[in-house]
Amino acid sequence: CSCGSYADAERIIADHGIKHVSGILLDLGYSSYHIEGSGRGFSFQKNEPLIMRYEPNATE
Q1: Where are the alpha helices (DSSP H) in the chain?
Q2: Burial class for 12, CB neighbours closer than 10 Å (0-12, 13-18, 19+)
């Protein structure tokens, strides 16, 4: 497992000695539940504040 910027992907892959990549699996950490769920503030389609937080009870 490696973490880094997408801009560093070529270097990270080379650092692991990988010569060929057929595909990449990304876990972006969110689902439609997070985006569409009421009270989370990710959507302009609902009449609610646009707070854009995964945790609706977070203070910061």
Answers
A1: 9-15, 32-36
A2: middle
